[in-house]
Every structure is written in structure tokens, then in C-alpha cells.
């Protein structure tokens, strides 16, 4: 919450004060509304419990903010602890078009020193299409030089 007609500009006020304004406004939101107020706590044990249990419900992590911190536009001044794990992978092959791949053959390196794992990901989400389809399409349909199986070699159906 950055500004209200009743309270004026809130950017320079601390998080605790901005949150109180937001909670007051949310009391007017109907119970069946799709809008929800994000949970907030100052109890580290409660935050840890939320972090450990709520990832399965789609909660991506915690935003950690001092109670007196103002809103700083365009800056990352608060800490973020994410529950999602990521890993790097080499795209070994593509089915479908390069703009909208249907499946990716991925090679994922092992952190334990064993051979890399290779698997076919048959579930390519719209998010992957929008963020990475243009990267694949940016090859102009050309396959990199090299032989099948060489690092960096790939093949894809161009549709």
C-alpha cells in the first residue's frame, strides 16, 4: 500500500504502519472475494514453519523486511528466501517448433561428480514458451556445428 485518500502518501512510513493501513482497508473486502491479504508475522519460528510447509501450496518463499523499513521504489532492499530449487541444464533436443517447444531433451549435470543425467521433459509450460521459446527460435533454425552427442550439439523439429 503506497497511498490512500485518507492516509496520504505511505512510501516513507515503515512497513508496520503501511500494513496496518492495508489491514484496515481489507476489513471492507467481502469474505468471498478472490483478493487475499498475504500472511505476515514477526515470529521467526512461525516464518520458518510457513517456509517449510507452504511450498506445496504454491507459496514461493518469504520476503524478509524490517518492520520500520520504508518502501523504496526500484530497489531491492528487502531479503528474499525462495523455496523453489533451480538447476542448470543443456538443451539436447527439441520437439515441436522452436517458438513453442512441446518437449525438451535436457542434460542435467550431477553435483556428485557422476555422469550427467539425460531425460525428456514432456511438459513444457506456457511460462517456458514465453521466456525461452524466443531463445530457441533465435538460432534461426540452424543446428550448431558438431556431431550428434558432442557437447552443445542439438537437433530440433522446425515447425
UniProtKB/TrEMBL annotation:
GO terms for biological process: DNA recombination; DNA repair. Residues 135-159 are annotated as: Disordered. InterPro entries: DNA_ligase_ATP-dep_cent (IPR012310). Keywords: Ligase. The keyword Cell membrane does not apply. It holds the Pfam family DNA_ligase_A_M. SUPFAM superfamilies: DNA ligase/mRNA capping enzyme, catalytic domain (SSF56091). The keyword Ligase applies. Residues 9-80 form the ATP-dependent DNA ligase family profile domain. GO terms for molecular function: ATP binding; DNA ligase (ATP) activity. Gene3D superfamilies: DNA ligase/mRNA capping enzyme (3.30.470.30). This is ATP-dependent DNA ligase.
Amino acid at each position: 500500500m503506497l497511498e490512500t485518500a485518507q492516509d496520504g502518501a505511505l512510501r516513507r512510513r515503515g512497513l508496520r504502519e503501511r500494513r496496518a493501513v492495508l489491514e484496515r482497508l481489507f476489513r471492507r473486502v467481502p469474505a468471498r472475494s478472490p483478493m487475499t491479504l498475504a500472511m505476515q508475522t514477526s515470529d521467526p519460528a512461525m516464518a520458518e514453519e510457513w517456509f517449510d510447509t507452504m511450498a506445496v501450496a504454491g507459496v514461493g518463499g518469504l520476503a524478509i523486511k524490517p518492520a520500520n523499513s520504508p518502501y523504496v521504489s526500484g530497489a531491492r532492499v528487502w531479503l528474499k528466501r525462495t523455496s523453489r530449487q533451480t538447476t542448470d541444464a543443456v538443451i539436447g533436443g527439441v520437439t515441436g517448433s522452436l517458438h513453442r517447444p512441446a518437449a525438451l531433451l535436457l542434460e542435467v549435470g550431477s553435483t556428485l561428480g557422476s555422469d550427467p543425467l539425460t531425460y525428456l521433459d514432456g511438459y513444457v509450460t506456457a511460462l517456458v514458451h514465453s521466456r525461452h521459446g524466443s531463445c530457441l527460435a533465435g538460432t534461426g533454425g540452424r543446428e550448431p556445428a558438431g556431431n550428434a552427442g558432442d557437447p552443445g550439439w542439438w537437433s530440433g523439429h522446425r515447425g
